[in-house]
Amino acid sequence: MKLIEAIIRPSKLDEVKDALREVGIQGMTITEVKGFGRTGGRVEVYRGSAYVVDFRPKVKIEIAAPDDLVMAVLHAIEKTAKTGKIGDGKLFVRALGEVLRIRTGERGNDAL
Fold first, then answer.
1. CB of 60 within 8 A of CB of 7?
2. Mean pLDDT, the chain, whole residue set
3. Residue 107 and residue 99 in contact, taking contact as beta carbons nearer than 8 Å
4. What pTM was computed for the model?
5. Cα distance between residue 44 and residue 10, in whole Å
6. Torsion over CA of 92, 97, 102 and 106, rounded to 10 degrees?
7. Distance CA 71, CA 46 (A)
8. pLDDT beyond 90 at 24
């Protein structure tokens, strides 16, 4: 089992969610986050004063997936979240030692 974390543009969330459903993902956790990478900051003017906006709004998706779905999940996210511009995001994959469904006590892949 793997934990896949995707940091993507908020505007791509619905497309990514639909693509993940198509590959068999039944659940995910979404968090609104802010961050920056190569884009760095940009100067904006508000009421005549210039200020630097360092952090850009992003969405973080967390998905626990069985090993046999990991590549399909990565491909689905990459394909739908990609615009070809700086700021498309990142994907991270980590090993999961154990998963437990609290309601039923199921463990491992059965808990996903």
1. yes
2. 91
3. yes
4. 0.85
5. 20
6. 120
7. 44
8. yes
Torsion of CA 80, 32, 85, 78, to 10 degrees: -30
Q: Which residues of 71-107 are buried (b: 16+ CB within 10 A; e: fewer)?
A: ebbbebbbebbeeeeeeebeeeeeeeeebeeeeeeee
pLDDT of 41 > 80? The answer is no
d(C-alpha 92, C-alpha 90), whole Å: 7
Contact 1, 96 (CB under 8 A): yes
The residue to which tokens 């808990």 are assigned: 111
Tokens of 7: 């940091």
Residue 42 token pair:
């940009």
Q: Which tokens go with 6?
A: 């995707």
CB 40 within 8 A of CB 11: no
**Tokens 């508000």 appear where?**
46
Give the amino acid at 12: K
Please report which helix (H) or strand (E) contains residue 79, including its range.
helix 70-81
One DSSP character per residue, 21-74 reads HHTT----EEEEEEE-STT--EEEEETTEEEEE--EEEEEEEEEE-GGGHHHHH
